[in-house]
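Homework help board

Subject: predicted structure for assignment chain

Our instructor gave us this sequence and asked us to write out the predicted structure in token form, then describe one feature. I got the tokens but I'm not sure how to describe them. Can anyone check?
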Amino acid sequence: MNSSDPVWIIALMGMGITFAALALVMVSMWLLARAAPSRTEGASGGEDVAADIIDNPPADVELPVGATLEEVAAAAVAVAAAHSLALQRRSAQIWLSPQPRSLISPWQLASRDRQLDRMKQ
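My token output:
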């Protein structure tokens, strides 16, 4: 094979296009990661708002007789956590609902078995 053979030129052009495409994907992922907001920004902002509400409660909120703002806030968090847990449990029940055997492949059965074992731990 000669170095001026068209096969080598086509192969080099194909490899160049492939590496250029990979570089384009990597650059676009980097740009998307830079453009996305940081997850830690939202978490610290929520704590500041909660501390501000506890320190300066709104004037139009009426607390139950004998209850402090901290107790009412704790009850609200407990209700929100119970609601979230109920939604998770409901979605798990739908996902784990029995299906006819013909609809479940052996791969799905093995995967479900592993996931149920993880949930038991």
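Reply (TA_rk): Your tokens look well-formed. For the description, you could write something like this. Helices lie at 6-35, 39-55, 69-95, 106-120. That's the kind of observation they're looking for.
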